[in-house]
Amino acid sequence: MQRSLISESQARLCADAIRFLSVDAVEKANSGHPGLPMGAADCAFALWGNFLNFNPVDPRWPNRDRFVLSAGHGSMLLYSLLHLFGYDLPLEELKNFRQWGSKTPGHPEFGHTVGVEVTTGPLGQGFANGVGMAIASKMAGERFNTADFSPINHTIYALVGDGCLQEGISYEAAALAGHLKLGNLVYIYDSNSITIEGKTDLAWSEDVEARFMACGWHVLRVDGHDYGQITAAIAAAKAETGRPSLIIATTHIAFGSPAKQDSCGAHGSPLGKDEIAATRANLGWTHDSFEIPQEVRDICANRVEELTLAYNAWQRGFEAWHAANPEKACLWDAMWHKPLPANLTDELLAVVAGKDGATRALSGAVLQKVASLVPALVGGSADLAPSNNSDIKGSPSVQTGTFGGRNLHFGVREHAMGAVMNGMALYGCFIPYGATFLVFSDYCRPTVRLSALMQLQALYIFTHDSFFVGEDGPTHQPIEHVASLRLIPGLQVIRPADGLETAMAWQAALQYAGPTALILTRQKLPVIARRAEFKPGDALKGGYLVSCPDGKPDAVIMASGSEVHVAVAAAAALAEQGLKLSVISVPCLEQFMAQPQSSRDALLPAGVPRVAFEAGRSESWGRLIGCDGLFIGIEHFGASAPDMVLAEQFGFTVPQVAEKIKGFLNK
Question: Distance between CA 422 and CA 155 in Å, rounded?
Fold first, then answer.
């Protein structure tokens, strides 16, 4: 909602309040970044005080404008805004900046502090998250808006810095945003030309305006301390609905500090008591530490009152819309609340019943069923959809003017793909998925980590999961990647062995309140023959018994994915030689380790030798096999040859595996 602007003198007073709240909090903590909040306060208050649409009492309101502080090191800027505009962030929390248990950590954290839209810290991530939010907003609007009422008509804003634009992810995301003509995206670039090492011209001399114009953005330039220019630019950016907008605001880091303004010393260090006193005198700020003038509180409270009227009007309109559009209302509820069918297991298993094949192909078949049952599911690939089997058949692509589809095209941009997925998950209406080859998970690993840190329901489809990729050679053969992904706390990594496990992997992903990585094969796999006692829900436990002999086994073989059927065959071969082995499929180590100790002990009895078998590195299996167990895997890079030749050369055939286990038991 926009109305008559706050006066220039009022805006300056409020901006100075933000500056000194930030300065005082950093000084009290003796840690933090005062320079950015001091320099960006004018732009930030102009936005929040005049344009941003929100309700601090309902911080997750679907039609709120989103504000992303991509330059997360300037977190006190955001905390000051949240406090002044009535969010549940008391002044005491600002005084406890960066302290144990506070709601004001060093970088903003989603889910930890009310009003924080996204966890930002790694520069450029917030920039790309905002693009994901803007895509989600366009897609939601296409689904729900009618001629009489638009429940989705908001804008995505972000404050980005020099570091954000230097990171490559920002270019990936900017190019995608320009291609899609995201006119609901407005970014303010806090251009203070300072980084930690000094002036940005030490390593950066590009024409940012030309870069963004080449990407299809609407670009404006302002003095970042001129209130009139800032507000006019934001208004012009909002009016430009055919392109994303970048407002290049030239600012002074540590604005108002006589000794620290425009210096790299203000980036990540407190000003110090003497310099704070000098800054107060320089800016005419006569208030004590953490003191907020009543006029500032009144200005912010008045703004919130105005926004509350708009919020209430939206609620009335939405209630009428919900009643008048039952089909759209049903879709709204399904997409925002994401209920799952009671018979989900049966529905998914029916797709793959009795079918062998590559798990990437089986996953693609299950994906079609999931898409028919869960309308919130949308996604795409980093230009590999035919190989990843990641298209939703029958749905159009998301392109400019056709945001009603469900198939996204990220281009060859794995890093931005992950961050866009995170932005869409944060938006709240969608369950996004993104696909690429497992070996390229390295390109999006920072975004996968942030998915886990924020516990977002994002699905990563990683295919071509081992050296069995074959002739493409070691550059395309992931060796260490599964073990590496398993190191990320909160990421559910699932490597299914056949169609049944693939179907249950999708169910696990849909039920998990966090990110999932599906690790899928290029090569065909047979259907696993399981014990009569097996129940599909056993696969959701992360590990289960596939086969076992009568009596106590001589050893237990644990395997995942494409190695499970080889383990079953090796156990059968050894049985003919008088050795009794149990075989356990472990599609998800994280879920298996989360089971009660008694459940794991039943599968891995004490005193029975343990073997782990996987086409990757050994590190993630150490907790289960211990120091005395055997790991059969690969500890070196692959080679270019047909997959079956590589299996023979690397010791992965049934006779070779059986011989290794026999030697281990007879040592």
Answer: 18
Catalytic, 167? Answer no
What does residue 587 show for φ and ψ, rounded to 5 degrees?
Answer: -70, -25
Q: What strands lie across the sheet with 377-381, from one edge to the other?
A: 407-409, 377-381, 431-437, 459-463, 516-519, 492-494
Distance in angstroms (rounded) separating the CA atoms of residues 9 and 88:
27
Domain boundaries, given as residue ranges, for the chain:
8-308, 344-525, 537-665
d(CA 487, CA 482): 9
Please name every residue paired with 161 in a beta bridge, in sequence order, or none if there are none: 190
The residue written with tokens 């998914």 in the block is 348
DSSP 444-460: HHHHHHHHHHHT---EE
Q: Hey, what amino acid is at 166?
A: Q
What CATH number does the domain located at 344-525 have? 3.40.50.970
In this prediction, residues 453-473 reach a mean pLDDT of 98
User: What would the two tokens of residue 216 be?
Assistant: 């299809």
Helix (H, G, I), strand (E, B) or coil at 636: coil
DSSP character for 488? S
Q: Alpha-carbon torsion 205, 210, 211, 212, what sign?
A: positive
Fold of 8-308: Rossmann fold (3.40.50)
With the C-alpha atoms ordered 605, 607, 609, 612, is the resulting torsion angle positive or negative?
positive
Alpha-carbon distance of 64 to 333, in angstroms, equals 18
- Residue 85, CB-side half-sphere exposure with 13 Å CA sphere: 31
Residue type for position 137: S
Domains 8-308 and 344-525 share a fold: yes
Position 120: which residue type? T
The second-level CATH assignment, the architecture, of 537-665 is 3-Layer(aba) Sandwich (3.40)
Look-up of token digits 């999006």: 444
In the predicted structure, residue 2 carries a pLDDT above the cut 90: no
Which one of the listed residues 414, 501, 590, 614 is annotated catalytic?
Answer: 414
Determine the pLDDT at residue 5.
81
Residue 25, Cα to own-chain centre: how many angstroms?
29
The mean pLDDT of 645-658, rounded to a whole number, is: 98
CB–CB of 591/492 below 8 Å?
A: yes
pLDDT one-digit tens code per residue, 410-440: 999 999 999 999 999 999 999 999 999 999 9
Residue corresponding to tokens 């024409």:
207
Q: Give residue-wise pLDDT tens across range 301-341.
A: 999 999 999 999 999 999 999 999 999 999 999 999 999 99
